[in-house]
Amino acid sequence: MKARRNKKQIPSFRKLLKTSKVKLENKLKNKQFKQQSTLKKYRKEQRKLRQAVKDAVSKRPIPLEDPKGKRPGKRIEREEEEEEEALPLDMMDEDDLQLMKDLGQRASFLTRDLSSSEPVHVKKRKREHVIEKYEKIPRALQTAPEKELIHLLPIKDKSGIIPQTREKPVIDSNQDEEDQEEVELEEEIIEDPVRELTLEEHLTERKKKLQEKKMHIAALASAILSDPESNIKKLKELRSMLMEQDPDVAVTVRKLVIVSLMELFKDITPSYKIRPLTEAEKSTKIRKETQKLREFEEGLVSQYKFYLENLEQMVKDWKQRKLKKSNVISLKAYKGLAEVAVKSLCELLVALPHFNFHNNIIVLIVPLMNDVSKLISEMCCEAVKKLFKQDKLGQASLGVIKVISGFVKGRNYEVRPEMLKTFLCLRIKEIEVKKDTEDINKPKKFMTFKEKRKTLSRMQRKWKKAEEKLERELREAEASESTEKKLKLHTETLNIVFVTYFRILKKAQRSPLLPAVLEGLAKFAHLINVEFFDDLLVVLHTLIESGDLSYQESLHCVQTAFHILSGQGDVLNIDPMKFYTHLYKTLFKLHAGATNEGVEIVLQCLDIMLTKRRKQVSQQRALAFIKRLCTLALHVLPNSSIGILAINRILMHTFPKTDLLLDNESQGSGVFLPELDEPEYCNAQNTALWELHALRRHYHPIVQRFAAHLMAGAPSEGSEALKPELSRR
């Protein structure tokens, strides 16, 4: 036996662990079962007690003097015994007897109706109102409440059909007790009312509360900034203050928290996008430092997401103008909160284009660019412009352009022109692209083994090998984005921009977006595919001829046409004479008074049409434009006059033979026809620039100086030459 006992195996640690787990589970189950059973017992007892109280309420109180015939025999005997022990009635005073009878008739605690809302101690407290209350009670006998019956199937007997019914079971509820407690609480509250504060005290109290909240926000923010990885949980605490419920300081605190969180995210966000971990990565064992970093990244992304959702909700609440149930913030305050939320979104759009949820911010911001509120619209447009200007690679710009294009199409081109004007800030230039492609096409070549053997010694070959190895590693480790990717993104962005522009030219020619479209085409014309040039010029000429455009819009058309022809359009054999004629004809439409809006575009058009295309411009055309510009300089404001005289000076330098306009003698046949709209056939060589004499007596000193300079033939040196600060303009 002993041998057998010794042979018995000692259970392993794992087995012991298993059995202990089972025991623990059983213990836990037993404990839960006991708790449940005691709870059931307690509920049962409570139910019985409530039922007893209900039954007592339903019974009528038995009067002290009942008719003797109705009493049962046993009760009579018992009462007789009691009467012997009690005092005889004839020994009692009449008043005492009456009091006893009243007490007998009055309902005791058990028979009192608990459903009545009035508590017991109210009667004690307010004795004087007894008669009034008594008068208010309706004149009806208290009867037992009718019990609801359930009709069952009838039974058939010899005597006939007997109907069967059963009482409906009463559902227990604590409503009576709860009502009573509520009333008591209300009365207690009424008894000691809070003293009302004066306006000055209220303001002091608010200032004190606000200061406390500010200190709390500052403490949390500085803790997070000092050690973001350890204090990432405090970010949640700070974000919870966005739901501030104190009506005195709610709006101000929420605004402060929005701005604080925005600045915090700008500071603690890493310079890379945080991706979710895969299952394999989660299951692998990692060091404490790595685990801490992962927890920080997860916490940061989730809090950033919730923060953006909160901002979006604030903007939605303002848009829908819905009051919340809590009613802490008024409808007026919604606008202020929404403005701060939009400002924060704009800041994050510009500051964190590389981080998570950037596309979500774009989707929020783009519709607000077309908002009714001018302030919010301008804020969003400025943020988008800023993003375009600083985006070197083009990834973020492409995302914004896609959303804007879809939004404009979805709204059927009924949007603010400012939305399309943001396209002008895109960083896409041909020179950069060309330079980048050259860099791509010339990768550095390493020497082959044969070349090394021919040119280098053994030691030099060894050094060269180590150097090349290092260079390869550096190239792989370099984090700069490849220029190929950049070129691809720029191409895609431009395609979307041109699709938007061409859609508007085709479908919405009377839209207020047209000036922005023409301006954009003028800027990016050198990047348009040559295949589209012919069609585009036809469309532009049709627009000008239609007469639907304003003067400024028609100038944009002319500018766009010449931008197209000055770039890749040089190879095309297109004569833009009709555009020259249009500009010459409409020069006198420039505003002569309050505004100088059109002058700048006119000067740009003249520069690109006459100066940059000097080889394609005839002398007759140049003479006609110089003469008309001098006449125009008499009509406009001084600053416009200076600009026009400056362009005349450039034209006289570009076309030296135009100095014949400074002579009185005419050349060739014919007379100058100022009213003719064709610059080639108006015989401008047969006139003189008499306007310069009038301009020489102009009230503005710089206009006088320019006029005298042009009369002398626009010399570069000598007494009539311009000062350097004027000639550089």
From TrEMBL:
Region (Disordered): 27-93
Keywords: Coiled coil, Nucleus
Record bears the keyword Nucleus: yes
Parts of the chain that traverse the membrane: none
One GO term describing the cellular component: nucleolus
Pfam families: CBF (PF03914), NOC3p (PF07540)
Biased composition (Basic and acidic residues): 52-78
Segments of skewed composition (Acidic residues): 79-93
Subcellular location: Nucleus, Nucleolus
SUPFAM superfamilies noted in UniProt: ARM repeat
Coiled coil: 449-487
Similarity-based family: Belongs to the CBF/MAK21 family.
Protein name per Swiss-Prot or TrEMBL: Nucleolar complex protein 3 homolog
Gene responsible for this protein: NOC3L
